[in-house]
Amino acid sequence: ATTSTAGPTAGTAASAADAAWPMAPSATPGADTESKTLGFPPMLVSVATLVSWLHLISFLRGFDGTSALIRMVEEIARESGPFVLILLLTIVGLGHALTIVSPGDLTLFEGANLVFHHIWTGEGLKDVGPTRFNDSQEVDSQPLWTVNLWYCGTLLGGVLMLNLLIALMSDTFERVQEKADAKRNKELAKILFAVTHLVPERVLNVLDADAGYLHISSEQGVGEYSACRWIGFFGEL
């Protein structure tokens, strides 16, 4: 009888072939990101990219269709600081109060137990279930203070603060429209000033473009006089 060795030999050959086959290089984590940023820290490049795009958008102030919108966004962002502070303090205060009356080990700033989550989703009143604050199975058996606190937060956050934000935006829009011409002339002067510094001096000499500024003013009445005389001087912007 002849013993066949084809099986083991074939298996050994296959194993050797697999071992000899060149393995594809494994991708190094973060290598693709580093190639995009040319070796610089990705976060720094991301911030610089965002700032560059915002700076590019700011040059749209020179056009009639976009200058008012960009100016309005800037004014709202500048004046919404106190509003955002009051809104955050209100949310934190109401959420903290709800967390205190809620049983169990709840941490203010941990996971899904954020105070913002308590006040906006009404956790314990409608999302999680009626047994969040007590052992009763009836929704109507919630403590009166808990229900009133939740509705107070809903009214403050969803009604009062929202209407206050709308009023703030409307007031800003009216103020921007009143000073639209003066603001536009000032923005155009700033853009020209920036372009003058970006263009090389030799190019300006070839173009024979002398840097100059145009001051636009209008005569105003002061008290009982129709006009007044102002003595002073103008400087560079």
TrEMBL record:
<feature type="compositionally biased region" description="Low complexity">
    <location>
        <begin position="1"/>
        <end position="28"/>
    </location>
</feature>
<dbReference type="GO" id="GO:0005886">
    <property type="term" value="C:plasma membrane"/>
</dbReference>
<keyword id="KW-0677">Repeat</keyword>
<dbReference type="GO" id="GO:0098703">
    <property type="term" value="P:calcium ion import across plasma membrane"/>
</dbReference>
<feature type="transmembrane region" description="Helical">
    <location>
        <begin position="83"/>
        <end position="101"/>
    </location>
</feature>
<feature type="transmembrane region" description="Helical">
    <location>
        <begin position="148"/>
        <end position="169"/>
    </location>
</feature>
<keyword id="KW-0812">Transmembrane</keyword>
<feature type="domain" description="Ion transport">
    <location>
        <begin position="42"/>
        <end position="180"/>
    </location>
</feature>
<keyword id="KW-0472">Membrane</keyword>
<dbReference type="InterPro" id="IPR024862">
    <property type="entry name" value="TRPV"/>
</dbReference>
<feature type="transmembrane region" description="Helical">
    <location>
        <begin position="43"/>
        <end position="63"/>
    </location>
</feature>
<feature type="region of interest" description="Disordered">
    <location>
        <begin position="1"/>
        <end position="34"/>
    </location>
</feature>
<dbReference type="InterPro" id="IPR005821">
    <property type="entry name" value="Ion_trans_dom"/>
</dbReference>
<protein>
    <recommendedName>
        <fullName>Ion transport domain-containing protein</fullName>
    </recommendedName>
</protein>
<dbReference type="GO" id="GO:0005216">
    <property type="term" value="F:monoatomic ion channel activity"/>
</dbReference>
<keyword id="KW-1133">Transmembrane helix</keyword>
<dbReference type="Pfam" id="PF00520">
    <property type="entry name" value="Ion_trans"/>
</dbReference>
